[in-house]
Model the fold of this input.
Amino acid sequence: MGFEPGFKHWRLEIDASNIANLHLDKQGPGPNVLSSEVLGELDVIIGAIGESLPRGLIIRSAKPSGFIAGADVKEIATLRDSEDALALIRRGQTIFDRLEGLACPTVAAIRGFCVGGGLELALACRYRVALDEPATRLGLPEVLLGIHPGFGGTMRLTRLIGAPAAMDLMLSGRTVDARTAKKLGIVDAAVPERHFESAIIAHALTPPPIKTPKYFLQLANAKLLRPWLARYLRAQVRKRVRANHYPAPYALIDLWERHGGDPAQTLLEEARSVARLATGPSARNLVRVFFLQERLKGLGRKQGPAQPKIHVIGAGVMGGDIAAWCALRGLHVTLQDRGAQYIAPALRRAHDLFSKRIRDRRLRRAAFDRLVPDHDGLGLPHADVVIEAIVEDVKIKQALYETIEPRLKADAILATNTSSIPLETLAAILKRPERLVGLHFFNPVAKMQLIEVIDAPATDPECLAKTAALVRALDRLPLPVKSSPGFLVNRVLMPYLMEAIVLWSEGIPPEVVDDVATEFGMPMGPLELADTVGIDICLSVGQILAGHFKSEVPGQLRNLVSQGHLGRKSGKGIYTYRKGKPVRRRARGKDSYDLDEICDRLMLRLINESVACLRERVVEDADLLDAGMIFGTGFAPFRGGPLHYVEDTGKEAIEGRLEALTTRFGPRFSPDPGWTTLTL
Ligand code: NAI
Done:
């Protein structure tokens, strides 16, 4: 081939049948991403291939982790302005256009993840052959970063599989496996390992006709039909996110509606739209959230045992679901309780979870085989990690520890799921308190991404590192938190929930209170959240924290509990529930309430408590606090976290608002002393 080697990220080999095999192996430890440098080299290589024209070009990844993970998010974060962004995107589009225009057959050989810019590159190839294995995932998840595909993906995917399926994929950001990708028409073949290589070569040497979507799917792109489908799509998106919080999906629909019929114009407008979005506040904060997530993942990177054996004690709401989740993630688990009758419901729930999450019958069976009911605690002496999730009672937990400690392996970790008892108290009766850590899962276990890893003064740092590695093995995010009342998430959340109850007791309809919070960007209103968590649990956590921090628990909460109105689980709490859903009345006269003040009362209590936690170093820094609240409670990701919100809004402005609220409503709003030393 007529050009010099010496590329940093790409390697080109021509085989005996004159097929060019182009391998991407981006320098450095991370996955393959399309940085400017990677794209620059690709540009030169495509030019050379265009001149020498081999029989075919196959694009492969040399990294076992996957094909290509997308554009380089670090570069998105450093874009100065929309002009800067536009130039970068147009350059990528031109390179992909040239790839598409090559006169020889081009094949993307897809193994592992192929997402974002990676899939856009594959879409610019004439054929895509995917390996049918669980690790292969394809999608265009750009909306999760506050943008949409920019390297021609909106136009090419729509052309390839029709607008309805393409828009669904791009608007949801979800990824699909190889077989689904084949069914949708994204890939030309989804084959097992033994046929993978021959399928790739066959597409390059004897290129089959190019597939197009069925006629009625093509019709959806017609000028007259686009506005109809666009209206439907907007209504669907509106159910999930608001345009002022997450403009990207709306921009994508606008783009397609206006320019979907004209590929050249779509490309130009696609680039303009992404350039605008990428430099706007929503994308900037979502990119920040992406890096916070990467940081939490990094905290769990230190290796523990590759396949730690887990023993869970307490098969209730939490312990049962924790054990099932461990088994789902491939770990061997023994599950102990006081009697077999307490374990049975947990096994039934595990069955439901596996049925929902594992399609293959044999793999489902295997997950079940990994979850062993163990009434006699036979698994205890073999376990690397013992997770204790019995009732929240110091005496009962300590009594259990006394009986189990002598039976633990020397290097076993004892992890407690306590939500409120200081670890120091529990460790007091242990001979080896350094082996005790907190592993605070949130409810429901299968949904909540964050797990707090609690550090007591005596805890061995190696135990903490291994516990964080276990959290990663469970595909969850570990947040290191100091042992202190309520740890981080519950402590910060509680004043916000309590203020919501106070507002409701003042006669403000629950729908108004909840709407104000969701308008701010919370995933669910605080009153519906209190009902969902359980009014009794809110009362118990609220009382524990009130005891520590000399705050008050609203009387209305006690009244609800004494009337048996425990929330969603009892069919009535603050809302009445029908078929598990709250009956929401249309809040009449909503505008007669001071909605800004309601919002301040809710959010500033949460923020003030965040500042207090930072002052006490409950977590190490402001970014970890923001990460905890985003992944632990769903705190408005497009705002980048509570402390980032302070930074964006201005520290003095928020302190001033807290002082004004203190004058009107009393000392629960007094700015925490941490404000004076807060640097963001
Ligand atoms: P639960 O009452 O549903 O389950 C507790 C289980 O422990 C019961 O099955 C009981 O039979 C068993 N048990 C009690 N004493 C035992 C012993 N000596 N040996 C073996 N098993 C014993 O309680 P839940 O809600 O699952 O809570 C468990 C722990 O998780 C508590 O420490 C709680 O604070 C914590 N937690 C609870 C959350 C929730 O939302 N329910 C959230 C996060 C943590």
